[in-house]
Every structure is written in structure tokens, then in C-alpha cells.
Amino acid sequence: MPGSSTISKQSFDVQTANILREMIVSGNLEAGSRLTEAKLAEQFNVSRGTVRAALHKLSNEGLVTQVLYTGWSVIAIDAQDAWELHNLRRVLDGLAARLAAERIEPAGAKLLQAAYQRLCQASEVGDPKDIANADFEFHKLIVALSGHRRLQEHYKLTEQQIRVFIASCDSGYSDYQNIGHRHEALVDAILSGDADGAERLAKEHNAKHGDALISNMRQMESQA
What we know:
224 residues; 11 helices; Arc Repressor Mutant, subunit A; Four Helix Bundle (Hemerythrin (Met), subunit A); 71% helix
């Protein structure tokens, strides 16, 4: 367990969930790690009820699971989980990119360009956590720019698991500086209103590294 952190007593379960979420997504809490309400309550200086509410929230996001009689554990994504998230992401991102290209406006274009620049800057610095966060925020913005409320709701159901998957894919790159620039063609397609191109590029994006990650996970599982 990472070093002790203190949460403002006014923030309660939401802030507790936010901190635990970042610890999971960043890898500071490893997959399969056991979590107990008593230890977390002591670490964060909050009540066990606050911790329990936070863990239930993270459970709804698919980041932790409750183990009968023993507490909680951080999810461990296996090859089947990765395959499902990979294919679901391609469908959702493809539709979002198409719709964003069809309805892009000056205000949305500025937001997209800014998100792209943040991703490129994070890639140049090379911090894996910042790259994964900027990558996720970039794609989440495209979903928001789609203007499709139900698409956004479906994306939100698995977005934290998708964050974990994106971080896993990004970690497979040997050249972090190119991660940001790999999004340039997608940005150009959306800004130019090329709906067909935007959908195709979004579906193809990260396909190579996602497929490689799943293949490696399946191989490791078969050898276990």
C-alpha cells in the first residue's frame, strides 16, 4: 500500500473514491491487491462508512470487486476483459469520431486542438501517467463532441476500465514522444468534417498495440 494520505473531512466518499481511482489507474495499487475498509479508513483518516461508500462507487465503475468475508480487491483485467474493452472502445470511439466530424463547430474545434496539444506535450515529457491521462481525456472529449447523450452514458459505464486499458496500451510503446502525434490524422479528419475518415481512423487507432497486448496476455495465461 502506498504511503499514507489524508483527505479533508468535508470531501467524504467522493474524494476518497477519486484518490483510490487514481491509485488504481496509475498502477500504484496493483491488480489483485486486497483492500480492507479498516486499513483504508486509517490511512485516509475517514470513517469506514465513507470508505465503504467509495468502494461501492468504484465497484460500479468496474475497478474493484467485493470478496465475500475477506474485503475488497482491485480488478485484474485478463485477456478476455482486454479483448472486450478493445473491441467496445473501437466501436464507441468510431461512432463518436464520426458524429464529432459531422457537427464540429469553432468552439469544439478549439477544445479538440487544445486536448491534442496537451497530449503531445505530455508525450514529449514522457511521464507514462500523464500520457495515459491526456490520452484518455482526448478520446473522452471526442465522445463529448459527438453530442450523443446516450453514447456518452454508455461510454461512462466503462470509461474507468478503458482508462486502465489505454494505460496498458500506451505502456507498450517504446517511443513515448510519438504517442501524441499519432492522433494528428484523427484530429485533422474531425476538424475537416471528414466523417468517414474520422470513423475509420478512430477504429484503427491503437489497433496494433491493443491486439499485441491481448495476444501477449493470452500467451501468458496459457503458460500459467
